[in-house]
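Hey, does this match?
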Amino acid sequence: MTSRRSTAVCASTLAAALALGATACGGDPVTAAGGDGKALAGQTLTVAGVWSGAEQKNFQKVLDAFTAKTGAQTRFVSTGDNVSTVVGSKIEGGNAPDVVMVPQVGVLRQFAARKWLAPLPEKVEKSVDSNYAPVWKGYGSVDGTLYGLYFKASNKSTVWYSPDVLDQAGVQPPKTYDEMLAAARAVADSGTPAFAVAGEDGWTLTDWFENVYLSQAGPEKYDRLARHEIKWTDPSVVESLKTLSKLFSDDKLLAGGRNGALATDFPGSVEKVFGPKPEAGMVYEGDFVAGVAKDEFGRKIGEDAKFFPFPAVGGGKAPVVSGGDAAVVLKDGRNRKAADAFLEFLATPEAAAVWAAEGGFLSPNKALDTAAYGDPTLRATAESLVGAGDSVRFDMSDQAPASFGGTKGAGEWKILQDFLRDPSDPAATAAELEAAAAKAFRTANQG
């Protein structure tokens, strides 16, 4: 790894260096496709992904950096959320993209099962072995073959808060779940509901459960439940639902109570804490909360919008749950040479530094010095993610078949919304989750 100082300088001068076809930081030659600015001249790389808006603009800067290094032109195709259907239709129509940025482990596995993917180049695999915690290689592999490179990640174990509200209640950021509940009660007693919960978006509730479960049940059980090797009626699941019900069952801790939470989407939950008329002191979700608080409501991250790590539950360790986007190469793409070169580029810290400087991005690449991130708060979330090493776990619902873990109004999303509405019977909720999971995994295995 380069020194902190040299990487910081690199992050600030990278775009100009790439535009000149220069060397990478420290004087080492840029390796992807030769880095002479001409190696892929005349070729066009097509990349598909879910991103739009600011994320698409920032990713375009990564694509532009690749163009500066290689001469290849690039074209980005936004798929929307239904990546599998869009990519499948393009393959059938003979217009497959060269690279897809896949947002879910389950979708990556689905693509591999359909024989759509090409194994990643040996050079990429060596970079992953050197610079990523082994868990990331595992999530990008199917049956021992590496198909996906995790370029963008998120830290979904962050609780964001208004310092003014916590100061008014006389509480400090908690270290344990029980301390968090006590702090929440103190905040509520001071006159402000403690939490804005985005219950209208079922995916946020899966993230709540996953953080509690990873800490309380441990990583081994988490992995087994994610693969449906243990049932959702397992006592560990029931216990985690009971833990979650301590928060969900207390209406005074939730902005608008349970009904209000069920009518609040994710952006609305951030607005309730950091908007012009605050209605709550804290909101749980990933590091991407900062982007909404900053861009939509003008909050200064690290000053009037801060976070603490999701606290440890019981005697467990503080959890680190992550999501992320993996780059995969399609067999039916028209430009394998450019695709392989692009994957080699994405595996470098230089590529990650392009987006890291813009914000709204974390990299699991340990070779990226955290000085590359644009602000101290983002740097802290990145350090927490990378520092977790092999104990980080990918979002469990993203590993499941979409009919269980990723469908609005169905499966885990709906069942946990029902649980938020009435958290009085965790065992019954666990039974509903098991019935839905069993059906989804059975169908996926048959397919």
Summary: Residues 91 and 229 are 33 Å apart (CA to CA).
